[in-house]
Amino acid sequence: xxxxxxxxxxxxxxxxxxxxxxxxxxxxxxxxxxxxxxxxxxxxxxxxxxxxxxxxxxxxxxxxxxxxxxxxxxxxxxxxxxxxxxxxxxxxxxxxxxxxxxxxxxxxxxxxxxxxxxxxxxxxxxxxxxxxxxxxxxxxxxxxxxxxxxxxxxxxxxxxxxxxxxxxxxxxxxxxxxxxxxxxxxxxxxxxxxxxxxxxxxxxxxxxxxxxxxxxxxxxxxxxxxxxxxxxxxxxxxxx
Length: 240
Description:
Number of domains: 1
Largest sheet: 8 strands, antiparallel
Keywords: Signal
Domain 3-keto-alpha-glucoside-1,2-lyase/3-keto-2-hydroxy-glucal hydratase: 36-238
Protein name: DUF1080 domain-containing protein
Shape: globular
Oligomer: single chain
Mean pLDDT: 90
CATH superfamily: Exo-inulinase, domain 1
Region (Disordered): 133-153
Pfam family, one: 3keto-disac_hyd
Structural class: mainly beta
Distance between the termini: 54 Å
């Protein structure tokens, strides 16, 4: 028969273990960790992106990398989307729009041939020259201006926006059925991404009756080709 000797420290540890109640064991559960930040544009290549509905094919040469920025140089290039899909996430991205320019950042984009464009399914954070593009005066209550939830909710603080030719730092947080838009450090839009309030907003927008519009809880991030020159940089994301 083999005998084991316990040190004083070992006896103490054993005693604590045996006397630990279930409540004690769960008193300090580990907090869920946020995902690590991931660059989805490396500043050098278009790796990790493809044209909508064209996975595995080269991105249109009208989308270029110039001086560390991802830029659309001409229209008819098509929207580009991430290779990866995301559910709950935090996205940081900087954008600069040309005079009279229009673009957009979309999320939860479902890539499926039944949907001809990325905005058929993906809600949009608007990218716009508010002073010169006619879209700024369309819609209701400025709900097509920079930073808005396009055609649905206007920014609460229009002064957060920087005009054409200047960089804007945007942040988009989607988590637990809620989304928040930030522009240059200010939260300017907040909304539920499902439920009665969301359904009401959709019913009062151009997306009323669109069968697939934000019907998916995961999807791709998209950058829009609206035919105008736009620049993006410092694009990173983390899953929540």
